[in-house]
Amino acid sequence: MTARAGGRDESTVDAAYARLGAAIARADENRALVTEAYKITSPQTALTLRCECMHRLCTEVVALTLEEYEEITADPAQAVVAPSHADVDEREVVKRTSRFSVVEEGLREGG
Ligand SMILES: [Zn+2]
Fold first, then answer.
1. Which of 2, 4, 22, 63 has its CB surrounded by the most CB atoms within 10 Å?
2. Model confidence over 18-54: pLDDT tens digits?
3. How far is the CA of 58 from the centre of ligand 1 (A)?
4. Ligand 1 centroid – CA 71 distance (Å)
5. Is the pTM of this model over 0.70?
6. Helices (runs of H) and strands (runs of E) counted in the chain
């Protein structure tokens, strides 16, 4: 039970990863749903998907077409969030519409 000092940064990083993990889990659900929907409907069909923000307990939903979702997630760094959750997510907001916002991870890296 030693070596607790100096572990602050690590736990902060862990917490950030946990939040990101929650976001990724919801993104995976969306991806599965979109893949299924493609089999039975057209790309212009609007679907109710889960907000992919970094809040672990988020239950918000976003409405967007399969086409829109495909376009956004073609970039793996991007995620779809509810408009009201874009500002509280830790990632950079790269697009805002009336129905959803798009956030992008790691914009500040390597710049
Ligand atoms: Zn959310």
1. 22
2. 998 999 999 999 999 999 999 999 999 999 999 999 9
3. 5
4. 20
5. yes
6. 2, 5
